[in-house]
Amino acid sequence: MFTGIIQGQATVDKITVKPGLNTIHFTFPQGALNNVQTGASIAINGTCLTVVDFDANTAAFDVMTESLRLTNLNELAPGTKVNFERAAKFGDEIGGHLLSGHIHTTATVVEIIDSKEEFTVVFSIDETWTQYIMPKGFISINGASLTVGETVSENQFRVHLIPETLRITNFKALTPGSRVNIEIDHQTQTIVNTVKRLKL
């Protein structure tokens, strides 16, 4: 389980392509892997991955073909920076909202509005998922718990990012056409699906 509070950025070191999976090696900031163990869960761009090997500042993860297909992890290359969050422990403060680390889909950056007043990103997403994206609702983008600003059209929405979010995440590197991982808020999804069933 994760909270959507990004703890920093890791950098892709190397990618080893194997039958049915890629093993991706990342370099983490000093101290970020303290007390980590093989088998531990770390969210990379919001995708829950399992540590298969590590040392002081690096960790490796096996990413299966299906995860590569559903996420933007298939676009990683050496030098790419990703958001990371280590799994929450019982008693941790939930500063964002509860996340499973299971990505539902991806969205594409349509426009970036960078002004003195705000940094706004407009995303397009398959209309299948827009029923779960509501103004002021929660959404996870590349693992970060964010509040939806407003919907723009039937398949677009926007978020407004504060300077601290830009500092700690890889959002500053987004450009039009960038793909991001999306995890829909599970409570919203459950409520919408329940209401739809009751109307049948």
UniProtKB/TrEMBL annotation:
Molecular function terms from GO: riboflavin synthase activity
Keyword Nuclease appears in the UniProt entry: no
Occurrences of domain Lumazine-binding (ranges): 1-97, 98-195
Enzyme Commission (EC) number: 2.5.1.9
Pathway connected to this protein: Cofactor biosynthesis; riboflavin biosynthesis; riboflavin from 2-hydroxy-3-oxobutyl phosphate and 5-amino-6-(D-ribitylamino)uracil: step 2/2
Record field: catalytic activity: 2 6,7-dimethyl-8-(1-D-ribityl)lumazine + H(+) = 5-amino-6-(D-ribitylamino)uracil + riboflavin
Annotated InterPro entries: ATP_synth_asu-like_sf, Lumazine-bd, Lumazine-bd_dom, Riboflavin_synthase-like_b-brl
Keyword vocabulary terms for this entry: Repeat, Riboflavin biosynthesis, Transferase
Lumazine-binding repeats: 1-97, 98-195
GO biological process: riboflavin biosynthetic process
Pfam families noted in UniProt: Lum_binding (PF00677)
Classification via PANTHER family: RIBOFLAVIN SYNTHASE, RIBOFLAVIN SYNTHASE ALPHA CHAIN
Alphabetized NCBIfam families for the sequence: PRK09289.1 (NF006767), PRK13020.1 (NF009566), ribE (TIGR00187)
Function: Catalyzes the dismutation of two molecules of 6,7-dimethyl-8-ribityllumazine, resulting in the formation of riboflavin and 5-amino-6-(D-ribitylamino)uracil.
Entry protein name: Riboflavin synthase
Organism: Oleiphilus messinensis
